[in-house]
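FORM 7B: Structural annotation worksheet

SECTION A. Query
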Amino acid sequence: MAEQQVQPLHNEKHANTKIQNGINVEFLKSQHLVPVVAHEFARVANEFPMSFVKNNETGQFQAVAMFGLEPGENLFVKDGKWTAAFAPMATTRYPLGLVKHPQEDQYGIVIDEASPLVGEAEGNALFENGEESDYLKRRKEALVSFIEFSHVTEAFTKYLADKELLVAQTLTVDIKGEKKDINGIYLIDEKKLNELSDEAFLELRKRGYLAPIFSFLTSTHQVARLARLKAQQA
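SECTION B. Predicted structure
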């Protein structure tokens, strides 16, 4: 895989730089878990199973979409193409990113110049006469939204963890008659959810957490889809 060459975006240096539409399949094909934000849970649940993974150093949980059943496996990349009908925000922001300036509360945009989507020949121009193009403005808004959505999702996830609604789970999938266990993931504990007091349940509703919780629970049925895809590719 080509090394990334991440540079700050500059209207002179990148005056003629264009970005093609599409997803960086080269990077994605080896990703089996990708972070997702609560705002897209409903759409993610139509395509992928979701789970939470725990950072053993910080003890923090993160919501992820599962693209494969083991590390390095993405069952939605076939013949160099992305086959799912939807891609989470974390994958579509590439080759642009936001970097926070250490001193101030501001973000700067960076671009991966090594990306196959970046060039001067074809694509969407980032600058027109030295000014940001409409395309770049839209991309910038999406990047800022993603940061905001990530903060909301962190708060949501922390709340579930604090209320002990996340439970370590082993998922067992059937691939061509063989059982395979997937460990190290956490799911929302449906039993505990149903046992919450009316007051605690109302609190979830007030915070707007019920919709993402139900989307998450629905998504776990997609594990069978991953098993089917894996069986087909085997």
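SECTION C. Observations
Residues 36 and 64 are 5 Å apart (CA to CA). The chain has a mean pLDDT of 91.

SECTION D. Sign-off
Analyst initials: ____
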